Each structure stands twice: as C-alpha cells, then as structure tokens.
Amino acid sequence: MAVHFVVHEVKVKLEHKTRLKAFLKELFEREGQGLKHLQYVFCSDAYLLEINKQFLQHDTYTDIVTFELSEDPDETAGEIYISIDRVVDNAKKFEVPVSQELHRVVFHGALHLCGFRDKTRKEAAVMREKEDEYLNLYFKD
C-alpha cells in the first residue's frame, strides 16, 4: 500500500503528509476497498484541463479527475489529479480555509475509487456526507 503526492508546476502547502497517507489507507479500509497504489498529482487549471480534454473529452475546468488503474476490482491502483487553482477558488467561494477544501477534494477522489459517484443529486448528497464524515474524522484532533 503506497500513497504518493506529486506537485506539478504549482505551489501547494500540504501539511502532515505522513499522517494524511495513513488516514487515506484507513479511509480505504473503512470503505472495504483494498489499496495497492495511489498517486495524487497537484497541478494547475491548465494542466488538468488538458487531461480532462484528452482522456474524458470534457472541455471544462474541474477541481479533480480520478483514474482507476487496477484490473482487480478489490484492490485499487489509482491516480488523482487535483487543480490547486480550483481548490483555492472554491475555498473562497465556499468561505472555507484552503486546507479544508484541499482535504475535501483529496477525500473526494479516494471516495470515487471506493465506488462512490456524484452524477445525480442523490449520489452527490451521499458523496458530500462521506466527505464531511472523513473531514470530521481527520480534523477531530
């Protein structure tokens, strides 16, 4: 089980990386999903837009794109791309600290890899509840 953080042409302040890696492993355990490898790539809007166009044929900005790379449905191997530009803008929009919004998106990607979706209102509501649950668990100390 390996969790890695990569920064691509942006500045990001991700504190307590070792603790966050351990917590992400716990999130997968709690959701009953095996974890083989997980890589987060923190990048710019422009970089993520190109990924969105190339792989998903979406010509829109987004805060996150998640790829499941494993052929084994019981064991996740994934890449999660997060736009720091979107995270900062969304933190302002929702009037929350950037750190909180960043962690919300980090957990959001992990939850996608655990099988949660957000295409319908009902799915999005469940996803938001799970994000809040893990934010509360992570920041309880």
Explain what the structure shows.
- The protein is of the alpha/beta class and 141 residues long.
- The protein has one domain (2-138): Metalloproteases ("zincins"), catalytic domain (Collagenase (Catalytic Domain), 3-Layer(aba) Sandwich).
- The chain has 5 helices and 4 strands.
- It has a 4-stranded mixed sheet, sandwiched between helices.
Q: Main traits of this protein?
A:
EC 3.1.-.-; Collagenase (Catalytic Domain); zinc; four-stranded mixed β-sheet; 5 helices; alpha/beta; cytoplasm; MetalPrtase_cat_dom_sf_prd; globular; about 140 residues; metal-binding
Question: Helices and strands, in N-to-C order?
Answer: EHEHEEHHH
Helix proportion:
40-55%
Write out the CATH superfamily name.
Answer: Metalloproteases ("zincins"), catalytic domain
- Cα gyration radius (Å): 14 Å
According to DSSP, the number of beta strands is: 4
Quick one: overall form?
globular
Q: How many domains make up the 3D coordinates?
A: 1
Major β-sheet annotation: 4 strands, mixed
Mean pLDDT: 96
- Portion in beta strands: 15-25%
Main β-sheet, spatial strand arrangement: 1-2-4-3
CATH C-level class: Alpha Beta
Helix-strand makeup class: alpha/beta
Question: Which architecture per CATH?
Answer: 3-Layer(aba) Sandwich
Quickly count the helices. Answer: 5
The rounded distance between the terminal residues' Cα atoms is 25 Å
Which residue ranges are poorly predicted, with pLDDT under 50 across at least 5 consecutive positions?
Answer: none
- Using the coordinates shown, work out and report the CATH topology: Collagenase (Catalytic Domain)
